Amino acid sequence: MEHTELRALDQQLVAKLQHLISKTSLIVSDQQLQLLVLYIEMMHKWNKTYNLTSIRQIDDMLVKHILDSIMIAPLLKGKRFIDVGTGPGLPGIPLAIMHPEYEFVLLDSLGKRVRFMQQVAYALKLDNISPVQSRVEEYTDPQGFDGVISRAFASIKDMLHWCGHLVNTSGEFVALKGQYPENELAELPQEFMLDESVPIQVPSLIGDRHLIRIKKSN
User: Fold this and answer.
1) CB atoms < 10 A from the CB of 33, how many?
2) In this model, does residue 10 exceed pLDDT 90?
């Protein structure tokens, strides 16, 4: 009986996510839909014990975690990305599902979150994510990244201060914000410049969302 109920929940969540995505211009395959739902189910299950996220209801997770993350998938530039302060893998894991041809390092300082992401990688067979437990200022990568992604990690100024060493020569910083961060951008260090600000419309999500693209100015 439990197995039947789980299968019914699967299909219900898939239908809900499919309905939300139909309100956007995103193209998501059936396999990607299944993986996104499996991921959110795992998060919902683990969250009861490990407190991975403050959002408790699985329907809210679909909007505030999955949809909010994948809306920026078409806006990524490059092939190698690092998601700093990723928590349970947001937005990195949904983006990795959307872009199996891209590589994502998922960085977090808490072991329980990294163990969860490792389990997700194993269960969903995601070979393009690398969960890493480290403080961002202590992590290095010899290649550098095309994009450093931050979602609710820090102020833009702090993000640039802690993550400046992570981009390659043409890499950029992608900060996901709510309201347009006018005050934060006014404090941009001299060696950085605002490249682009893109308003993001997330169906069923109340409040503004913006993608802020920043590059080194030299």
Assistant:
1) 18
2) no
Phi–psi pair at 46, nearest 5 degrees: -65, -30
CA distance 126 to 134: 21
Q: In what order do the strands lie in the sheet with 167-177?
A: 129-133, 103-108, 80-84, 145-151, 167-177, 210-216, 192-199
pTM (two decimals): 0.95
Q: What is the pLDDT of residues 35-48, one digit of tens each?
A: 999 999 999 999 99
pLDDT tens sequence across 14-38: 999 999 999 999 999 999 999 999 9
Distances (CA, A) of 85 to 89, 137, 154: 9, 11, 9
Instruction: Walk me through the domains of the chain, giving residue ranges and CATH numbers.
Output: 2-216 (3.40.50.150)
Closest to 151 in 3D by CA, of 163, 169, 133, 142:
163
Report the alpha-carbon distance of residue 57 to residue 180 in Å, rounded: 27
Q: Which residues of 113-139 are buried (b: 16+ CB within 10 A; e: fewer)?
A: bbebbbebbeebebeebbbbbeebeeb
Alpha-carbon distance of 165 to 18, in angstroms, equals 39
pLDDT in tens, 47-91: 999 999 999 999 999 999 999 999 999 999 999 999 999 999 999
